[in-house]
Amino acid sequence: MTEKILVGIDIGGTTVKQAFIDMGGNIITKWEIPTDKSDSGKNIVPDIVKSVQEKLEESQIHKSSVLSIGVGAPGFIDVENGMIFEAVNLGWKNFGLKKQMEELMGVPTFVDNDANLASVGEMWKGAGNGATNLVCVTLGTGVGGGVIAGGEIIHGQNGMAGEIGHIASVVEGGAPCNCGKKGCLETVASATGIARLGLEAVTQSPEGLLKKKLDERESISARDVLDAAKAGDDIGISVVDTFAHHLGLALANLSNTLNPETIVIGGGVSKAGTFLVDKLEAEFKKYAIPKIAKETAIRIATLGNDAGVIGAAWLGKTSLKKMENEVQ
Amino acid sequence: MTEKILVGIDIGGTTVKQAFIDMGGNIITKWEIPTDKSDSGKNIVPDIVKSVQEKLEESQIHKSSVLSIGVGAPGFIDVENGMIFEAVNLGWKNFGLKKQMEELMGVPTFVDNDANLASVGEMWKGAGNGATNLVCVTLGTGVGGGVIAGGEIIHGQNGMAGEIGHIASVVEGGAPCNCGKKGCLETVASATGIARLGLEAVTQSPEGLLKKKLDERESISARDVLDAAKAGDDIGISVVDTFAHHLGLALANLSNTLNPETIVIGGGVSKAGTFLVDKLEAEFKKYAIPKIAKETAIRIATLGNDAGVIGAAWLGKTSLKKMENEVQ
C-alpha cells in the first residue's frame, strides 16, 4: 500500500493556496493559482480540481493515495454540510463547496472557515506546538481569530465563533468598525487601526520619527508606527502602548473564560516580534487571573501563509477519522 | 430488565444535594445531607455512599439499576481522573474522589466542577432548552460560570475555564477582588458587588429608598438595591445600570468570541427577573456584533438548586457512553 497523502486548500480573494501534505502534517509540495472570481466564482472549484489533478500527475501520485481534501474559505460556513452561506469577496452565496468538490474529485472533502483552519494549522505544526487549548489572533488588515478547545474548533451556534476582532474595546468614543459598531478591537489592534492611531497621534503632536515619515509620504503605516516605537520614539511608543493595552485586556478576558494553554499571534503586525509580545504580555498579566497570567504562553505564529493549507489537511484527516468512528 | 437510573450528587460547603434521576433527566427523588468537613473532609464520601444506599433500599431500587454516578464539587478538578486538586471549603487537597466513590459503590463515577454541572443541568432540562452552545453565569455571593460549546463543557488547560467572574470589568480604579486583582466582574455583578455599589452610591447621595433602608438597618443588600430600582428610585436605578453595563459588555464580548445560542443567568441576583434581563439585553445589544445581538437569547435559569444534581446525572450518563464508544 502506498502511503496516503492529504490535500490542503486555502481559498483567498486573490489566490488559492494548495498543498500535498503527509500524514504527519509536513508539506510535500505546495503551489498556488489565481482565484477566478468572475461569474459568481463558478470557476473556482473546477480550477482547483484541474490544478490538483495536474500536480498529482506531475508528482506521480495516484489519486487513490489522496485520503481526504480539506478546504478553508472565507465567510460564513455551514461546516456540517460544507456549504458557504456567503463569501462576499468570492461571489459565493449558498454555495455547496463540499458537494461540488466531491463530485469532481471523488475524494471526501471537508470545509471550514479559513481563520479557523489557520488556527488549527498553528496548533498542529506551528506555535501551538500541539496545545489542544488555543486562542489564535491574526493581526492583519483586520483582526481575525480562532478558538480551539479540547482539540476541537469552536464554531458556536451560527459558525460565528472566533470573531475576536469585534470584541468591544474602546467602550466610549471608539472609531467606527466595518461591522457597524464602534470601538471594536479591530479598530485599535489591526494594521489599519495602528496606522490610524499613529496618524491621529502625530497630527496632535507633530514631532519625532512619525512626523518625519508623514512629511515624506503624507501617510503613516502600521510598520512606521512599530518601527518608530522600537527606535524609542515617544509617539510611536504611546500608540503601541494603546494597542497592547486593548489587545492584552481582550486576550486576558478571553483567557479568564477559556483557559487556553497558548495564545498565538499571527498576521503582518506580529512581525514586530518579541518587542510586541513583551508589551502585550505585560498588559495581559495585569488583567488575567494570577494562575492564568502565570501559565498562559503568548507566542508569535510560525507557519506564515502555510498555516491555512496545513490546517485544512488536519481538518480532512480528523473529520474522516471521526466519520469512520461514527459509522462503526 | 429494570429501567436504569442515574445518581446525581452536588457537594457544597454546607450540604450535599443528591438525587435519583431517570434517563430523560427527570428527578425521581431528591434529598440532602449535611457536609461533614471535619478531619479534612474524610467522611464526606462515606456519608454520601451510606445515604445513597439507604435511599436505594427505601425506594426499593436494586443497586444494579444504577447506571452511573455524577458528582459536582467546588474547586480545581482534574476531570480526567476525578481528582480534586484543592477544594478549600471542604478541606480536600489532591483527593481521589472518583476512586473512593467507585471503590465504595462499585458504580462508574464521573466528577466535574459544580458550576460546570449546573450549566449542563440548565442545558439539559432548564433554560438552555437543549441549546448545545451555552454560556451560564451565576450571580450569587460571587460570580461563577460555565461555558458549553458543541454540547461539551469547556475545561481549558487546567480546568480553570468558565471563570467569568474574573473578567476585568472596571479597568481603572476597580474594587479589590478575592482573586488578587481589582475591578473583576464579580466586584460589580455579584450580590456582594451590587450591595457595595449601593452603599457607595447612597453614601455619596444620601436620599431616596436606599437612604431609608440604610437608616433602618445600617446596611444595604443587593435585594434592597434591586427592589429600589424596580420601584423607580434614582440611586437604585443608577447602580443597576452600572451592573447591567459591565455584565452586558462582558457577555457581549464572550458572545462575539463564542457565539452561544443562549446565555443563562442564574443565582440569587437573577430572581430580579425580566426587569434585570431587559436592562442587561439593552447593554448586551450595544456591544455584540449585530447578527449575534439579534440571535442570542438571554434567559433566567429555571432549575434553581436542582441544576447541579441534574447536570451531574448528565455527566454520568454521557461520560459512560463516551467511554463505551472509545472501548469499541
From TrEMBL, chains A, B:
Pfam families: ROK. One of its GO terms (molecular function) is glucokinase activity. SUPFAM superfamilies: Actin-like ATPase domain. The keyword Mitochondrion does not apply. Gene3D superfamilies: 3.30.420.40. Its EC number is 2.7.1.2. Keywords: ATP-binding, Kinase, Nucleotide-binding, Transferase. Signal peptide: none annotated. It is an enzyme of class 2 (transferase). Belongs to the ROK (NagC/XylR) family. This is Glucokinase. It comes from Evansella alkalicola.
